[in-house]
Structures are given as C-alpha cells and as structure tokens.
Write a structure and sequence with these properties.
The structure is a single chain. Helix content is about 50%, strand content about 10%. The chain is mainly α. The chain has 3 domains: about 1-55; about 55-125, Ubiquitin-like (UB roll) (Roll); about 135-195, DNA polymerase, domain 1 (Orthogonal Bundle). The longest helix has about 55 residues, at about 1-55. It is elongated and about 120 Å long.
C-alpha cells in the first residue's frame, strides 16, 4: 500500500514537472509572439510617419460663389474638386461649366468660382487676339519666366504681389516689386500688358 502511494506521488511530481516545463515553453512562445507584434507595430508607425513627411501640404484660397470662402490646407497633388468640397461646395448661383475640377492644385493658388452673372459677362467680352504679349494679371510663373531678366524668384515675386494687391492697373505697377526697376522694366515693357 505504501508503495502504491509512493508511486502515485512520484507520478504526480513528474506530471507537474513536465506540465510546468511545457507551460514555460508556451509562455516563452507567447512572449516571442508579442515581441514580434510590437516590432511590426513600431515598423508600421515608422512607415506611416515617413508617409506623412513625404506628403507635404499646400494652401489654396477658394473664393467666389462657394458656401465657405477661405484658405484651405490640402495634401500636395490635390485637385480643384477637393478644394471646392472643403469650401462647402458651389452655391446655387455658381457657374462651374468652364471650371476644370480635375486640375491639380499648386501651393498658393486661388480658385475663384464665377456666379452665373459673372460667367455671362465674361462670355460677352470680345475675344482678344493673342498679340504675343504676357498679361501680368493672368500669367503663370512659367509664362513670366519667358520674359527677359525674369527668373523664378522674380516671377514668384510678381505672383505674390498680384495675390496681395489684386490686379495690375498698368504695366508700370511692375516696378513696385522689389528687384524690378527701370533697367528690367525697359527690357520687358514691350512684351507685357494688363487687361
């Protein structure tokens, strides 16, 4: 009888010992799996952080016939329809027929939504023949850079002045911009116009 009890006790000890070792291995495997998950989470955070740095933002002014005119922040590469959505959409008076809503936006761009009255007035204007001169009030940075003595920095200065002060009233207004004085103006005065 004593021997049976001793065998049972030894059997129990062995069972507990082997069971304990096994659960230790399971715990070790469980910890290893958790460490792997943490590494994956850290990697995903690093990747998503890198993505946010690779996607710079731009600022675009939306005005005219929109619900909420203002300056909006968008991801670089956004399109006009996305800026229009941020501004609450076009009003009932808006005329978006001539607006290319798929156009990619640039930083500092202004999107003006015409109302029906403005659109009708624009359609009535006589079509002007292209005389080859650059219109200071509508020219892009690239078009301005085709003028003699106007590089990227001066072209951006012209665009900035136009955004801050509105349209040029006469070509001589160009000399109000720092870096554009009589010498530069005399080189380009026959190549520019204002409408």
């Amino acid at each position: 009888m004593k021997q049976k009890i001793i065998y049972i006790i030894i059997l129990l000890i062995l069972t507990v010992s082997f069971g304990g070792c096994q659960s230790g291995q399971e715990n070790e495997l469980l910890l290893t799996g958790q460490e792997e998950e943490r590494k994956e989470d850290t990697f995903e955070e690093e990747v998503s952080g890198a993505d946010s740095q690779e996607n710079p933002v731009i600022y675009v002014q939306v005005s005219g016939a929109v619900a909420k005119p203002g300056v909006y922040e968008l991801e670089a590469g956004s399109r006009i329809f996305q800026a229009l959505e941020l501004a609450g959409g076009a009003t009932e008076e808006a005329d978006t027929r001539s607006l290319n809503q798929a156009e990619i936006l640039e930083d500092g761009q202004m999107v003006y939504i015409l109302d029906a009255e403005e659109a009708a007035a624009q359609e009535l204007l006589p079509k002007q023949e292209d005389d080859g001169r650059i219109n200071l009030n509508t020219a892009t940075e690239t078009e301005l850079m085709t003028l003699p003595g106007i590089g990227a920095a001066k072209a951006r200065s012209i665009l900035s002045w136009r955004e801050a002060n509105g349209s040029f009233q006469c070509t001589e207004d160009l000399m109000k911009i720092e870096g554009i004085k009589d010498g530069v103006f005399s080189k380009i005065k026959d190549s520019i116009k204002v409408d």
